[in-house]
Each structure stands twice: as C-alpha cells, then as structure tokens.
Amino acid sequence: MLASEIVQNVKRKQISPSEITEEYLRRVEKHNPRLRAFLRVNPRAAEEAGEVQARVSSGEDLPLAGVPVALKDNLCTQGLETTCASKILETFVPPYSATVVDRLCKAGAIVLGKTNLDEFAMGSSTEHSAFGPTKNPWDLTRVPGGSSGGSAAAVAADLASVALGSDTGGSVRQPASFCGVYGFKPTYGRVSRYGLVAFASSLDQIGPFSRSIQDLALLMDVIGGFDPRDSTSLEAAPRFREALREKQAGLTIGIVKESMEAGNTRGVVAALENFRLTLAKEHVRFVEVSIPSLQYALAAYYLVATSEASSNLARYDGTLFGLRVKGEDTTDTMRKTREAGFGPEVKRRILMGTFALSSGYYDAYYGKALKARSKLKADFEHAFAQADLLLTPTSPFPAFKLGDKLNDPLSMYLSDIDTVAINLAGLPALSIPAGFEDGLPVGVQLIGRPLHDERIFSLAKLFEDASSGQFLRVAQG
Ligand code: GLN
Question: What are the b/e assignments for 44-57, b being 16+ CB within 10 Å?
C-alpha cells in the first residue's frame, strides 16, 4: 500500500496501525524466503504499532501514522542488530538509533525490519552481502542492484510501504532503477548522517525509496532538516510536499551529452526519449549540455571512496565492536579478526584506499582524484547556467543476472557510471521509474543544483501525472 493511503485510512479509522503491520509481517513471512530483501524482522514491530495506535487515539496528528518502513541494515537501530551485512558486525546491537530512525518513529512509522545490502554498502548488486544475495522481484534470476538492494526489492514487492537506503555513489538510485521504484539522493547535508555506519563520509547520504512521488515527499519532510549531531548538516528546512503543489512552468532540462553517447541499452534510450516527449508536451524545454570531466568521475570516485573507507573501517579491530578472533597478541587479534570478519570486496577496498593514501602515492592518486572532483563541480555549475535540472540515465542497463559481474570488480564498478559524479559534486538526484525493457524496469535520473531538491520533485510529479503513473507497479516476483 502507498504510505499516503495508509495515513489517510488510519486517520479515518478505516484500518489500525496494528492491522497494517500484521498484514505486512504476513507478506514478509510469505515472500522474504524467496527474495531475501530483509535480513531480519523487528521483533517489536507489533508492539510499536500498538503504541502508535495509542498516540493516534489520543489525538496526535502523525504524518506517517502506521506506515511500515524497511531500513537498510547500516542504519543504527537501538536494541536491534545492525550488521552492515558483514560477519564483523554480526552480533552488533547499537545503543542508540540514527536520527532518521528517531524521526520516523516520532512521525508514527513502524520499523518493519532491516534490509540486505552489499557488505558495508560496497557494491552494486547486493551480492557482496555476507548473508546471501537479494533477488530482483521482477525476475528472480537477476540482481536488485545495490548496495541498497534489500530496501529497493522490499518496496518493489510491497513487503514494506517505503524504505530508507544510503547512497555513496548510487546505492539508492541504481537499485531503485533496477526494481522500478523511486530512489532519491538528497543534497549532501540535507539528511543527517548521525547513526549511519560510515563508508565514505564526504559522499554518504541517506535517501528514501517509494512507489509514488507523494510518498517520497512525505518521507523527505520527516527525515530531512538540520541535526546538531551531524557537523555537515545544513540548515535548509525540507518543504517537499509543498513543492508538489507548485506548478513548474517554463523550466529547462539539460540532457547530458556524455551520458547519452554510448553503451545505453535500447530500453534505457527509449525511457529517456519517452520522458523527454512526455514533459515536452507539458512545456518543459530541453537543451543539450556537456560535462566534459564526467569521463574522470568513476576513477575519482573509486579513489576517494576507497581512501575514506580505509580510514572509516579502521575502527573494526576486534577491540571495540562486534567480532573478535583472539590471537597471540593485540596485532595478531586484529589481523585474525579482520581476516575472518571482512569479505573479499571490503578487503579489496581497504587495500586500494590504503595504497592511494600512502605517502609515496598520495599526490598521484588521492590528490589527483580531489582535483578531478573540483573540476566536476565546476563543470556541473557551468551546465546549470544553461538548465534548471539535468537528465541522464540512472544506469546504462536494466538489472543484470546474478553472478554476471561478481568475479569482475571492474565491470561491477562500471555499472555506477551515471551515478557517482552526483555524490562527488554533492548534488541532489532522483531515479524515476520511466520504462520497461523485456519486462525489467528502467529508471531515468533527474539532477538538481545544491539545495534544489524540491524542484526535482515538482518535475517528477509532472511526469508521474502526465504518464498516469503507468510505470509504478508492484512486482509480482
Ligand atoms: N556501487 C558503488 C560502490 O560500490 C556505490 C555504493 C554506494 O553508493 N554505497 O561503491
């Protein structure tokens, strides 16, 4: 069910939060063994629904009353395991909840459970989970995308009304595209990262998944806004629902030339074309723009992200959190713990990042990547002088087969070609369900200037209305 419908029905007393939660728990029990979208269900979900019911009965006006939400398992939940799909955190129970989780609960949402991901959010297919891959509900032989594949699959199959993920280089948008749902990466700093397990701190942002733009706006209005506990948090108050009511006339969308040139499958090309034609009828203007430095984005991203990860993951040393494999001395304990606790992709990234930061190579790799990052930002600014928003594919292709790229890290990294630049530049971007290719969903990506998040939503609403929501279906996998 859509979150907006649930909230309305709860308000009109047509259904209670407990009934909704029970229904969703039944759906999860039935479909999750096949999909593995959830790593675990919240054992307190029914109890929490009862508490929300009591608050509704006492007259509280809750913007998310009774909405069952799924959380990526790198968002800290007090008293509920948070594993990052890693053996090293398999037994970790956080003593506090992430700011976004607190805000959701305060708004009346019910935490249904924690969803699968690539270990520590490193990957594009959810196959790097230490607990087995999630399957794409549109085709069980395919990946749901990653790293927030569990959250995307859960919303696509309606095992949760809405969900949260995290996006460091595309991990909300790419799985959203593969699963046929909306996935949004806000301007860096608009959603608090407090309680999000860090991967690459200068790139990480939490973002929502939904099956309607209204629901996405509902979520953003709840989770967004300043948080004193995150030093990079911005003051800008979220006004997403308001933005959906505003008519956007005379806007210009820039089609990013470099992302259209080669390699997109026919379904992706068709979805972009249909998006353009649909909005052109609504008096949106399209122009071509160029981001020449886009060709360096992938290389720069994998240097910056791995460098930051190598520093962030140093805290898992067998002394503070989770797993400890006892060795002969402290160093041996650290070595054995990391050897047993981290999967191959995480090890590869720590090695790569440590190498890029080492004194002899710092200027050649990390320093160069930072220069490319500045250049990208400048190129985007230049493009935004000619257009209000930018359009690219979310991914050059729809969901690929399980196992297809697992043993070829480079080809896996290449599936992020359209998303990573956005994180390097700190911009907001939304993946919009916009087509199908051989029964598989295809998304397109709308990008905004920093803090123009709401404007992206207005345009997405225009497209959703003009196309009568025809790309928003529940997957029956
Ligand atoms: N797929 C990208 C990576 O592997 C992005 C991950 C993410 O956004 N968390 O790094």
Answer: ebeebbeebbeebe
From 171, 177, 233, 395, active-site residue? 171
Q: Is 202 a catalytic residue?
A: no
Rounded CA-CA distance 16/148 in Å is: 29
Question: Residues lining ligand 1, CB < 6 A?
Answer: 121-124, 147, 166-171, 199, 305, 416
Distance CA 363, CA 368 (A): 6
Pairing of strands 389-393, 440-447: antiparallel
Protein residue with least CA distance to atom 4, ligand 1: 123
Q: What is the pTM of this model?
A: 0.97
Query: 423: CA distance to ligand 1 center in Å?
Result: 10
Residue pLDDT, tens place only, 301-344: 999 999 999 999 999 999 888 899 999 999 999 999 999 999 99
Residue 477 has pLDDT above 80, yes or no: no
* Whether 212 is catalytic: no
Any catalytic annotation for residue 171? yes
Quote the pLDDT of residue 415: 87
Contact 427, 447 (CB under 8 A): yes
Strand partners, 436: 441
Among the options 4, 16, 147, 395, which is catalytic?
147
Q: Name all domains of the chain by residue range, CATH numbers in brackets.
A: 3-246+394-466 (3.90.1300.10)
